[in-house]
Structures are given as structure tokens and as C-alpha cells.
Amino acid sequence: MKYRLASPADLPALAQMRWDFRAEAGEAPRESFDSFRARYTRLVDEEIRAGRLAYWIAEQDDEIVAHIAVFRILGIPRPMRTSDQWGYVTDCYTRPAARGMGAGSALLQRVQAWARELDFELLLVAPGDLAEFFYRRAGFVDATSFRQCQLRSFDESDDHADENGIPGLV
């Protein structure tokens, strides 16, 4: 198994995996795959190039079998630290045929080591019920210092998105 950061050449495969992941979760698409792939590729490429997003992938025989995305969140600088950042872990997926072989766990360990090297303060994740054990086993614990203000349901209509699927005032 090979573990590495994704490159722009990986984006079409990552878009397909994202599509498959959400379909496996039972989500019904509101657009064609081609439209989704274009929107996904544009956004992810921009975020990776800007340094706000890192996609880690696990490859076997030159095929991506698992991936984890980390959004880098910069904190307001503090006088006692020279690095104020943390990561939001999202889009963690392993292809069904590769599950149970340790690729996802090893990939998450790589992500944690990378975040330590970059002096991240913490990694935060909002796992679904099926992923809870995966993250607990990797050292993630319940966060009691965060609060949320849910502004809409996860699957609510995105009627306020522009023609590229970007939320905003339309």
C-alpha cells in the first residue's frame, strides 16, 4: 500500500469515489455525475492549490482505495504560539473491496502524523454512527468544548446555490 497527498491528476478518481460514497450512504443526487464532477474538481483543485485542503490517499496497484480530506483552519494568532491551526477531517472513504485490510486506519495514522509535523493543535471530525469506532480506535474522543448552531438540516434543499453549486445569496 502506498500513502501520499493527492495531486490534481487524482481529482477525477476522487470525484467518482465521493459520488460512490454518498450513493452508498443513500443520498439521491440532484445533478448529473458530469455536472458534479466538474463542480467537485473546480472546488477541490482551488482549495488544494490555496493550501486550505489536503487530500490523503491510499493506493494499491496504482488505484486509489481510500482517501481522507483535511481542511486546514487557521486560528487568530496568539502571542505565545507561532502556529495557530487545526484540521477538520472529512470525506473519509474506503472502497468496499479494500475494507477490513487496514488501509483506512493506516491512512488516518499518516494524516495524524502529517498534522503533528505541521503543528496542528487538533483534528476535529463529525463521524457518522458507522464510523464512530474507527475514529475512537485512532484516539479521537468526544469534544466537550465545541458547540454548534445548526442552521439547516444536512439534506435540506440547496435552492440558494448559484449555477456552480456554490452557496450564497441568489
Strand fraction: 15-25%
Distance between the termini: 45 Å
Shape: globular
* H/E element sequence: EHHEEEHEH
Structural class: alpha+beta
Strand order of the largest sheet: 1-2-3-4-5
What count of helical segments does DSSP give? 4
Mean pLDDT: 89
| Low confidence ranges | none
Q: Total strand count, please?
A: 5
Oligomer: single chain
What does the radius of gyration come to? 17 Å
Question: What share of residues is helical?
Answer: 25-40%
Largest sheet: 5 strands, mixed
Description of the molecule:
By secondary structure, the protein is α+β, with helices and mostly antiparallel strands. It contains 4 helices and 5 strands. The longest helix is centred in the N-terminal third of the chain and has 17 residues, at 33-49. The N and C termini lie far apart (45 Å).
Brief summary of the model shown:
The protein has four helices and five strands; from the N terminus they run βααβββαβα. It has 170 residues and is an alpha+beta fold.
Brief descriptors of the model:
22% strand; alpha+beta; globular; 31% helix; 170 residues
Chain-wise SSE layout:
Elements: E1 2-5, H1 11-24, H2 33-49, E2 53-60, E3 63-74, E4 85-94, H3 103-117, E5 123-125, H4 132-137
Parallel strand pairs: 4-5
Antiparallel strand pairs: 1-2, 2-3, 3-4
Helix pairs in contact: 1-2
